[in-house]
């Protein structure tokens, strides 16, 4: 009730502020002496929002004046006039899943579901009923639906196993279908599994995409961008049809039912893609533009394509050492695919789609799609002191969440917390055309969140479970892991410490390492030298470093992602020649640098690494020296039951389950 009162107060303030602003003259339901006009004639609909605010940074117009921009917008709206011949179903906004889920009266939005998704009480948690469905091989999908004290609430959309071609425009579906038929079977199956779930508008979490399989990544992006384009296209077509309905009402003198034309949000942007780097954004937009081939009647114009490629690639003349050495195998494939190209992590760009054109670098408030990094959006939100831009996002895609955990997970949480909030300004919104659930503050319960990662962490699972609340339910793809392969002969030891409280786990691990593990290392004739200690968390690294530095007798050097190039070189050299006995590194350092460390005979994992590929990779480093036998190498891994996700990727799901339970 308190949240509802706050929303109401914000809306009243917004309406009052909007009323004091100079507005364009709006057409009344009845106007005298109206002359009949051709409905397809070029015109500007007064019932559409004219979002002319300029974005900051990379989204400023390229020297275009406001007059030119308004002419472009008017031309775009003319191009968006509904064309039944170029659309699969004229009734798509009624019969499609988008029309059902985002209609003015969504079937999932009921008093019972609202109470279940936002239970009373500060510490109350949303309850989910889960069902597991097997897929091919070792994979399965976990379906979660809302439940309350009376049991499961059966309101989730049911995804069909058939390809849902009837939900998409012919314009986009036919080229996609041709591409899908040419894919190898595993990638075609991925698209066949994703598409039904995408159009169900449930939240989706896929946590085992390969970071090195680019064809798999491209197949995923092709399916998701089809969904994003179709969502925005369907919404705009619905607005155009309602504009025509209003025009006819004016001409005929018969007023239109206001509720039948409530088809908009606070602002135009309805889809959002969050990625870690510019090179990732370039891949996504390339996939996005692949859905706009040359048409039989007219060619789709791509505006600012050259500028986009330029700004999201490396500067001209800059050598890309990762790309140049890709075929030589100097770096692992997943590292090359993640970091080759432009890895700037502070950016945002808007894309507007019309019937005959796609406009890259559109003003953010005039865009259908926003693609950005979490840091880039956080920067503009904090700079402008409002999050109005994200008030009407209906579908958000978060790709490479595993990479974001290596950056700063807090930035992603910040952006998601600012989605679907009541805006501070009106932005020339036509409130008579707004969907009622936007005004009621319920948009966040209808938003679809799509999360992709190459592995899962407790932070991701908690985010997907607690931070996104879609009334339609959740879908989580999962797989059984077989474990990694390591060089033969290496003696592995997994050391478990007991902990029954997740909040105490950090302290318990540090206590066990400093009292049990490290003292034994120093006493060992073998493990007291040439020993690498890998600490996944930077905060744990700082704690371990400070503790070791208190004892001057410990011969040790430290390397983290914060270390400079010269510091890294000096530390590696000292360790390699034997001047120090211990080298302590963070997992993030290895993620960003991927150096081959020499001089290692013993490896201690303070915790299982999140990147399972790092485990066999680090164990292979001792073999860089000649005449090294596997029996000469030791490896110890400290773990608790809260490390189950990372552990199963290393030893396999079956063995990890047994190790955690014992």
Describe the structure.
- By secondary structure, this protein is α/β, with parallel strands linked by helices.
- The chain has 24 helices and 18 strands.
- Strands 1, 2, 3, 4, 5, 6, 7, 8, 9, 10, 11 and 12 form a twelve-stranded mixed beta sheet that branches. Strands 13-18-17-14-16-15 form a six-stranded parallel beta sheet, sandwiched between helices.
- Helix 20 links the parallel strand 15 and strand 16 (582-586).
- The radius of gyration is 28 Å and the shape is elongated.
- The two termini are 47 Å apart.
- The relative contact order is 0.11.
- The model is unreliable at 16-72 and 74-95 (pLDDT under 50).
What's the SSE blueprint?
Layout: H1 2-19, H2 66-79, H3 92-95, H4 97-101, H5 111-117, E1 128-134, E2 139-148, E3 151-152, H6 170-181, H7 185-199, E4 203-206, H8 214-252, E5 271-274, H9 278-289, E6 301-303, H10 305-311, H11 321-324, H12 333-339, E7 348-353, E8 357-360, E9 369-372, H13 374-384, E10 395-398, H14 401-407, H15 409-417, H16 436-439, E11 448-452, H17 458-467, E12 474-479, E13 491-496, H18 505-523, E14 531-535, H19 538-549, E15 556-559, H20 565-577, E16 582-586, H21 587-593, E17 602-605, H22 614-619, E18 634-639, H23 644-651, H24 653-661
Parallel strand pairs: 4-11, 4-12, 5-9, 5-10, 6-8, 10-11, 13-18, 14-16, 14-17, 15-16, 17-18
Antiparallel strand pairs: 1-2, 2-3, 2-12, 7-8, 7-9
Helix pairs in contact: 6-8, 7-8, 8-9, 13-15, 23-24
What tags apply to this protein structure?
single chain; 662 residues; alpha/beta; 12-stranded mixed beta sheet; 6-stranded parallel beta sheet
